[in-house]
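User: Teach me something about this protein's shape.
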Amino acid sequence: MANISLFIGGIAPLPESGRPTGMFKHPVRAPLFLGAEGFAGDQQADRRVHGGPEKAVHLYPAAHYARLAEKFPEAAGELLPGGLGENISSPTLDETQIRVGNIFQLGDARLQLCQPRSPCWKIDDRFGVDGMAAFIAEQRLTGWYFRVVQPGTVAPDASLELIEAAPAALTLGAAMSLWQEHRPALETLRQLATAPGIASGWQRKILDRISWLEKQPGATAPPTAAFHVKPESDQ
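Assistant: First, the predicted structure itself:
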């Protein structure tokens, strides 16, 4: 069982580009309904890469903020829980302790871990630094997304409790490390692709990579996308 803090927020402009973002969150003070696409009152600006049933709830480990503050001291004052747009902050959980497919109880709702977060360029804009999104991706300090398998009401003092384990699945940390390998073991990639509850979009990427590696056994594998870069039209 893990104690957590809850955050939601609307859409606001980024400080440098003025582009809209849902990254600015505030603490939840009253019970909220959690539905298939997230918490009531929570918004995402770019629905192409955020939100939806397989990115309904974002958890970010609170301990990662110390790593970020050490690397980017100029932004340390703003690197606090809720700052990266997460809905749930946990002081004890991280990517090494949870597995793809794990199901958790949160208040009356049930959540299933289905994929890691892919950081994007808006993180650099939000904190006024260059390279934070890349560092988060490279160091695998991403947090993760849940899908909602049972909607329900969640109080601010709720705890997150593992109720269905997926012992045969990789930990999220191991899965992300595998994904970053130059030529990962195909059998382990297949194990990841068949993890219970894995997000369909992430699964397709894994299967596509397996297919490419099988067809090109001696070729240099193309690098995997570490994070969402700023579109050229917005440069």
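Now, about its shape. Residues 2-171 form a domain with the M1 Pyruvate Kinase; Domain 3 fold (CATH 2.40.33.20). The chain has a mean pLDDT of 91. If you'd like, I can walk through any region in more detail.
User: That's plenty for now, thanks!
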